Amino acid sequence: MPHAFPRYCHMGDRALLVELGDQIGLEVNRRVRGLFVTLKDLSPDGIVEIIPGYCSLLLIIDPLGTTLTRLRETLGSILETLDHSRIPEPGSMEVPVVYGGEYGPDLKWVADYHGITPEEVVRLHTAHTYQVYMIGFMPGFPYMGELPKELITPRRETPRTSVPRGSVALAQAQTGIYPSQSPGGWQIIGRTPLTLFDPENRPPSLLEMGDRVRFFAITEEEMIRWQNRKP
Known about the structure:
Layout: E1 2-10, E2 15-21, H1 26-42, E3 47-52, E4 56-61, H2 68-81, E5 92-99, H3 107-114, H4 118-126, E6 129-135, E7 142-145, E8 160-163, E9 167-171, E10 174-177, E11 182-184, E12 187-191, E13 212-217, H5 220-227
Parallel strand pairs: 5-13
Antiparallel strand pairs: 1-2, 2-4, 3-4, 5-12, 6-7, 6-13, 7-10, 8-11, 9-10, 9-12
Helix pairs in contact: 3-4
């Protein structure tokens, strides 16, 4: 739930953790995004990096430009006057997915775990709009929630050593997309042809914190056509 007042934690002498709540949720994440957007817009002296999380922001400073004490005073003034109604609306995106088969090797396992059919898993996954709570784990990886209760699923007991780029997955109450090939322990139910992270783009991440995402099913043939599209 949201904290009545922010909690500060010094992370060494060059970073300050600002905690705005202690549980994952839309309201707390909205406050995190509001402060993140405002700090990026105001660019207070001395802040060199802002790293948002589910319920907090980590602010890294240049000690020659400010101090952690001065930063806390600045944050107090910003939070007192922060008007969330003036924060820009987040973006929205529809994400195509080929479900099951070689693209979603865990789809049947997820269906069996919940006692439903693979088609019902796809229906449930595509019927909801998800919010990007944060980007983490690797560049461009969106943590999105919340899954409908019928799809809350444990991670794999044994993580895979290699998960293909674009894999759409479930873990606990969240869904996510692997932006590049990597190890991973989430349940893979499909794959998208979209590029989630490209360092040549500005911004490099296709999705950002606060964005709203909806998935829709496509065929393997449509996947191939999508991949062959020119940039």
